[in-house]
Amino acid sequence: MKEEQKNPIQGPKSKGIFSKKWTFPVMYMGAAALILAVIMWYQDSSQFSTGQEDAVPQVSMDQQQEQTEPADLASTQPEAVPVNQTPQGLAWPAQEDLNVKVVMKFYDEEAADDVKAASLVQYEDTYFPHTGIDLASEDGKTAFDVLAAADGKVTKVEKDPMVGYIVEIEHADGLTSIYQSVDDLQVAVNDEVGQGDILAKAGRNLFEKDLGIHLHFEVKENGQSVAPEKFLAQKEEKQAQ
Fold first, then answer.
1. Is domain 100-240 in CATH 2.60.120.380, yes or no?
2. What does the domain layout of the chain look like in residue ranges?
3. pLDDT confidence of residue 97
4. How do residues 44-84 score in pLDDT, each as one tens digit?
């Protein structure tokens, strides 16, 4: 019985491990290594995700504005073109010092009724709006030289049974000048003429026979008949300046 009391039952051996001096330092170092590994893994994953974002170049607002705006803004803007610009202007189609005047005006839809009535051409029992202006001498019997209103190219020279000989000249800016009721032609198709060159002489025609010897002068802008005074007035204003 005494021998049994000298050898009591021993507890678990694990208790002896924790009693060692090196146990806790080892555990601390292992935990520290684990935490360090987790931190390094997190940093690597963050760098990977941000690295993809850095691959796309970042453009500042100023750079975006520079890219969207043309380098030379003035070169991209269309040049301003003045409305109804006539660089040279239209001169009167007759010598100005001659006693030649307008005997019939252009038919204007917006004019007063009495003005519109005076701009209708009567042929037999029908009235036609006048598409130009008619110039004649005081007596309606004197022929005068018909002059080119501006530089251009002759595109038509022909005789019409109603309005007599016709001369058409194309000018810049879509303008065409037309000269009807003329004789003694001095030009041919494809001739280049200058402002003031003699084209023909005023004559007679069947359509406006009551006017005697006269010139029917017409202006078309892009193929549409317009009041010649619109362009002849511009010429007068330039001379007045």
1. no
2. 16-70, 100-240
3. 73
4. 655 545 554 454 455 455 555 555 444 443 444 444 333 33
pLDDT in tens, 205-239: 999 999 999 999 999 999 999 999 888 855 444 44
Distance CA 194, CA 220 (A): 18
Q: At residue 170, what is the residue type?
A: E
pTM of the model: 0.61
Side chain identity at residue 106, one-letter code: F
> What end-to-end distance do the CA atoms of the chain give, in Å?
149
Query: Which residues make Cβ contacts (< 8 Å) with residue 177, sequence separation at least 6?
Result: 90, 93, 148, 149, 150, 152, 168, 169, 171, 217, 218, 219
| Helix, coil or strand: residue 225 | strand
pLDDT value for 204: 94
183 with 201: CB under 8 angstroms? yes
Q: Which of 141, 189, 186, 183 is nearest to 164 (CA)?
A: 183
Quote the CA–CA distance of 231 and 25 in Å, as a whole number. Answer: 108
Beta carbons within 10 angstroms of residue 120's beta carbon: 13
Contact 216, 94 (CB under 8 A): no
Which of left, alpha, beta for 163 (phi over 0: left; psi -120 to 50: alpha)? alpha
Q: What does the alpha-carbon distance between residue 83 and residue 226 come to, in Å, rounded to a whole number?
A: 14
Specify the residue for token string 């009535």.
Answer: 117
Output the six-digit token pair for 188: 């041919």
